Predict the structure.
Amino acid sequence: MTFESVIQSTLARFATNGRFVLLPGESLNKVLRREKVPNARGVYLCFEGDDIEHPLYIGKSGTIRVDGSWGKQGITERLYENGPRDQKRLFRELPAKECLAGLTFIWFVTHDQNIKIIPALVEMELLQAHYDLRGCLPRLNKHV
């Protein structure tokens, strides 16, 4: 099994998904708008260039509270607007500093009016698959 096959089987579960590339010097916010990435609850993966066998980061957007309500942060907000300070800086600065080929992002919506899977579950499934294949977490995931 490859990590690419894990991604393909995960994408097959979720009809609303996409992929985009952020090149060095590009505005992440502009790319998110151009690519029409929704501000929905879901999961995203970040890769250096087109190496989708080795994710740099696996993350989720959308946190469910004990009362069943949701935090407001969707995919676009998580990636850019309201993400943790280190993550915002990371996704803006990493292409210029380390990834000369840019960053590839794959995202998918896991919870909407049609499908009701909590993003944290899918994030953990992907992290587990990475751990099973590599014996570690992606380089930029600090902890689970």
User: Anything to note?
Assistant: Residues 78 and 139 are 19 Å apart (CA to CA).
